[in-house]
User: Fold this.
Amino acid sequence: MMVRIRFCKYGVLKFIGHLDTMRFFQKAIRRAGLDVVYSQGFSPHQIMSFASPLGVGITSDAEYLDVELHTCGEPEEMMAQLNAVMVEGIEVTGVKVLPEPLPNQRRETAMSLVAAADYLVSFKDGYDFAMDRETFEKAFAAFLASASIPVMKKSKKTEREMDIRPWIYAYAFPGAEAYPESHAERYENGIRVFLQLSAGSSVNIKPELVIEAFCESTGLEYNEFAWQIHRLEVYQDTALSGLTRMQIDECVRTQTLPERKLVGLIG
Amino acid sequence: MRKNALSDEILLTIDKPARYIGNEVNMVKKDPKSVDIRFCMCFPDVYEVGMSHLGIQILYDMFNQREDTYCERVYSPWTDLDKLLREKRLPLFALESQDPVKDFDFLGITLQYEMCYTNVLQILDLSGIPIFAAERTEEDPIVIGGGPCSYNPEPIADFFDCFYIGEGETVYDQVLDAYKENKRVGGSRKDYLDRIAEIEGIYVPSLYDVEYNEDGTIRSFTPNSPHAKPVIRKQVEMELSDTFYPKKPLVPYIKAIQDRVVLEIQRGCIRGCRFCQAGMLYRPIRERDVEYLKEVARTMLRSSGHEEISLSSLSSSDYSKLPELVYFLIEEFGKCGVNISLPSLRIDAFALDVMSKVQDVRKSSLTFAPEAGSQRLRNVINKGLTEENILKGAMDAFVGGWNKVKLYFMLGLPTETEEDIEGIAVLSDKIAREYYTIPKDQRNGKVAITTSTSFFVPKPFTPFQWVRMNTAEEFLSKQSILHRKLKEQLNYKSIRYNWHDAELTILEGIFARGDRRIAKVIYDAYKDGCLFDSWSEYFHYDRWMKAFEQNQIDIDFYIHRERSKDEILPWDFIDAGITKEFLWREYERAKAETVTPNCRKACAGCGARVFHGGVCYEPRKEEAADDGTNPVL
Assistant:
């Protein structure tokens, strides 16, 4: 059976990259004593996949990974077992046993489901910024008011221009009291913005890209170290359930995606 | 939430920030304010290397079991962070509390290989601790050295307040208790060093004076204080099944060199290879109880979550319960996805059976370490492996499906001739020929032989501690002779040759048998930018040679000179159990090409019986034949 685990990652753990986080969980699952499935052969490994790798330096309240078990206990029990072997900076916040796929269906991986993500982007204390909080919020709102935001999007091989405005689904300027449960780092200057962005294999918009475009549009110098990015949630779009990858890509191309119905990856 | 010593920006700029943030699984957390003693344990190499060392994990666990002590760790900052720390004038810090190393009571540095000496200076320098012990004040930590290189601590004696000679499990409690007591009575740094100089196994270099003869040899080595003992006795833990072992090993986030549970099954070695320092230093051999090891394996696998376990010892095939232990590990943990990483084993039916169970035969290789190419030279070095053993072992494995063989040899061994060197090529070829005697339809493709040579470095406390080491030119010429001879072999296309760097070996040789006059060279080379010398991309031989010249230190004196029997050697003040008489006797037997039987066959009277345990007191399997040795004690 497949089990989906949600965890948060914060504090010094933000310096641990994706592959090392995966290694951390492989060992943590062994420490927790879960009845995990190993591949056959001389170098057995766990059947594990992550929804959306988190970049080094980024913190998160909602990371997801799927792992295959032979047998399992109640979700609460597994969560307690896992949290007993975690470190400061990684905490399991949810466990769900996934329903078995129908006989002639393939199981959808967490990664293939990802459609959008929420971020909180904060300006760190200790860096110079030409705007105070109020000015920033006005300027940012004005930036997003434009009908199109063309940026150069770099991939491994190519660099191409794309309009990111349609993929910025929502934004807001949350007050200091917002997200009381979140592990997002908080800064005195109060400059921060909430962004809901398209994510996943079709169109993946990184919050850095939006901030960089904003800085460029206002003539500010973009300093990648000055912004702390925090992921609040990762969503699947149930409006796309049943569509194949090719059908989704076609909708993206023709801009005929159905109205979004975003749900967290463990509901 | 813990604070980092380094800013986010620095951590995001440098390579592998996980080296510097601590917080690993099983890291010990204590309130530094609630303890009496803060001990910072250092492995002077990069994090991934240092975290793989079992000794540090044992001491870390042992110190932290004391409620009054908080033991933390520090490793060598890699060159990228080294540069930033200097530029920004940031102090080096310990991983746990992220506090500056300078604030600690102790800085303990393990010395596992000679080529880490400039890294020791880097640690002191970046911590803001004076590099020379004589310049330290009451504000500085006590800098204590330990590990194999402390058996000749003289080249780095000026940088350390004291050395712990031997295995850490025995007198560290006394060293720490004495610190508390000295603090309680308001004693100074000097008072403390006087105090611990009286503890067995502790060497305080400043309490000894060295005088030299005109020819540069040592005239005298004498205590200058009533607290200092004329002889320092090495420390040995005799109860290895009832002592400290880390039940909850630290698990790094980034992949360490040893990303696995390490099970030390025994200490010491019965073989008595005459070039091997570890085989002499860690006598007598002491086994850990097999039931103890099974329990430790279970506990450590569970608490670490590692997916691999390896056995550690100098010669695992000599562990008396090896089959029982290995079959237990395979049966008990193999089904939970744990990989058993086998040590090098003597090839026999047992070895072939377990190897085929835990490795992919098509991918894995056999390893032999004949060390020398001819039987004559193998007798000189007392390596019991015969050509017949090797060929038979290889053939058994070939029949079992293996076709990859790794061979390890040394060049520059005492009495070596061109025939001995040629023997390496011939033996490599013979193994290939052996393979091709198998009918073609039963072979698993081509045979692949990898022959590697390193250069022999004479080490203290071995029968070869007196010998002349080869020059770099001699080493290189021998290497090219071998290269040529390999090309003349019938199966040369099946043989790959790997060689070592001669220049690094020269330095290792100087440090291994050097004296106090070498310290200034190390200091000058460090100041000239030498660091991470064991990493070939950072090794600057020219800078080292410049430092020797500037200090008018004659390299030939240290390595290219045969020492006489009555010369005072820099490490003579250490009593390692084995006697100088035994080592000399073994040297004579080497020259006579006479083999000395291993400890289980006959006692060679090395002197290790003074430790009252281990193999010295086991009933012997065969009665010793009269082979000319005089068992003493």
